[in-house]
Model the fold of this input.
Amino acid sequence: MFRLEPRASAPLLWQVVTPLLAVLATIIVGGALFAAMGFDPVASIRTIFWDPLFGPAAGYSRPQLLVKAGPLILIASGLALGFRAGIWNIGAEGQYIIGAISGAAVALAAYPLEAHWIFPAMILAGAAGGWAWGMIPAMLRNWFGASEILVSLMLVYVAQRIAAWMAFGPMKNPEGFNFPGSRNLQQYESASNPELIANSGLHWGGVAAVLALAATWFIMSRHILGFHIRTAGAAPRAARFAGVRPERLVALCLGVSGALAGLAGLFEVAGPGGQITESFGSGYGFTAIIVAFLGRLHPLGILLAGLLLALTYIGGELAQMMLNLPAATVQVFQGMLLFFLLGFDILTRYRIRRRA
Amino acid sequence: MTNVFQAEGLGKTYPGVRANDDVSFTVSAGEIHALLGENGAGKSTLVKMIYGLVRPDEGRMLLLDAPYAPHDPKAARAAGVAMVFQHFSLFEALTVAENIALGMENPPPRAELSRRIAELSQGYGLPLNPARRIAALSAGERQRVEILRCLLQNPRLLIMDEPTSVLTPQEAEILFATLRQLAEAGTAILYISHKLEEIRSHCDRATILRQGKVMGTVNPRAHSARELAAMMVGAEMRVVDRSGRKPGAPVLEVRNLSLPSGDGMALKDVALTLRSGEILGIGGVAGNGQEELLSALSGEAPTAPGTVTLEGKDLSRAGPELRRRAGLLAVPEDRLGHTAVPEFSLTENTLLTGTSRQGLARHGLIDRKAATDFARQVIQSFDVRTPGPATAAGALSGGNLQKFVIGREVLGHPRVLVVNQPTWGVDAGAAASIRQALLDLAAEGAGVIVISQDLDELLELSDRFCALNQGRLSNPHPTDGLTIDEIGLMLGGAHGMEVAHVQA
Done:
């Protein structure tokens, strides 16, 4: 028989290897699942992981990689700050939606004026909207001790209802033949977030994601604030002893991660999404949680994990079109990935020994 | 005398540590046998093997001359081995009888059990009401519950793990009377401690462990405490040097300090004056407000304005960082997770409290080189045994980490240093050097407050002594001339006797 023996410290090697193991296990179990459903496992896996990048139609799907990875990375880099401190913002999806609505509101109010200040103002409004939505759980936790996990999660559903209300009500396009949904911001030059390099998929959101990664890397590894965040996560009492005020950290982490999620929403609504619709939220806020953990809460890891999860989005859609795999495939894959990651994580803290 | 328990060549290896190496000794019926050793000497591993929590790699054990290899505590109990742990495992919301019933394999009916508990507790001079809730009991009474729980099994071998660490001197005397009575009834008692004086006065034989090996079994009454310590540590202990101290001007004033109870004990109207160059000792049984007093002084729990004043500056509302800048430094009790982060390197752990006083960050930017240099300085000045500043704090032994933590603050040249349990769970060698560091700090003109449950330590270090009881601080007494009996009364809350009348 085997038994688990605690390790003295978590070796770096295992911290890097376990995410890779999780990806491998997901591919194997996913393939078995497809086989059980009567699909060719090898073809299915190839369609999801290989074809979007190198397949016959890669020219169309490759730019989508950055389109999808941008918001995931942007949101995940903010979430990672809080997760390091033991502050669990599960509601990035809601902050993403509110950020998009806030940014779009600026554009729709200014319409049809063309001016250079509009896009920057939308960025500020998007960040502020996400920040405010993140501050609700922060304040409820600081004032009443409410769990930020539950409050932030429940606010997602509130945000989704608000998005639906906006799409049917205040933001409905007056020239939209009574269809729900706002004006399309892609067709409003001052407010649009265009592709920066043709056929790259890169828009301002991707730029913001890289900046956010660089900034969080700097804070976490060079700044005393990052040290305090890590201390709060590793040993809350030591953080308090060092002089960290927990309420401030809660407000900071939920505020910053909310603002970054809001930005992601804004760049999406002004770019690829184009308009506020009833179903504007597309799950980026939830998937970003997987990205943050798969990336070990480290900026470089988050970059790679964001690209991988983006790939599962695109590959899943491709498999749906080409092989008639069910639409839920992507979610199953993402869920499995997190599941295996958390499972394999035990190897970073324990070693397996044969029982004598 | 018949051998109750015998260990023959016991060995146990953990990754990187030889915890026990060829350990052989015997415990006879009717004796109180001390197991003496520094922290990390292998006492707990040995005891865990006897109690079936850990299995030995080599060697064998005999119980009543029959081979004995328990694979779990249940088997150990069935064979007649009982153990009272240092930390109690009692449900506060349940009564004494309910707690005892929970720990039994086949509890008798409640009324029958209560009767037996009352009978046993009377018989052994351990008064205890079976119907009382644990929450209402003192630490000493809780320990009685644990002891009674063991006695109900009629053990042949009773293991006591540092039982007096939570007791007042008077409570400890009651405990020893009970143990002696048990021994006379034929029970073998294995008594684990590092308190030399109590072993010398109460134990029949002592087996001394050092680095996992048996150094010998001796009659503790035939040796001085110094000799025993030398066997335990392997070298003559350093004598603490108390010279060169003269109290100067007051540096810290605490007035009307009250703190509502959160989870612990409320502080009630605490007042004290600390002079520069002076060490004030605060004694008391754990849970009487020690942690609360420390957090009120460290700034983790701010108090009403005007309650904490350092050299004329009111710091009552200031947080830990502002107090540190002003020169009021503190070292709470818990090394792992409070004064140090186990997962972080020693270098990173200097940032916890050294950032402002050592200039380890400029405009919020961490100066990694300065932090590493400072960590190295602490390691050198305080003889911290570790491969280097990149080692994780959690990888250090308790004594070495405590030296590091105390050293980090001492090198911050505080005006006032407040420490809680500075040598708790620390080996004798490290304890001596920590005490010397505190004395040196006072000799250089700082004021030092030592909160401790180790009376010997307080008597050795402090110029004045006061006791914390139920969140109240007694008036200080000069340490010279205090007797253990007087201290016991102070710890018990009899502050000159008039308090008792007011409350009655």
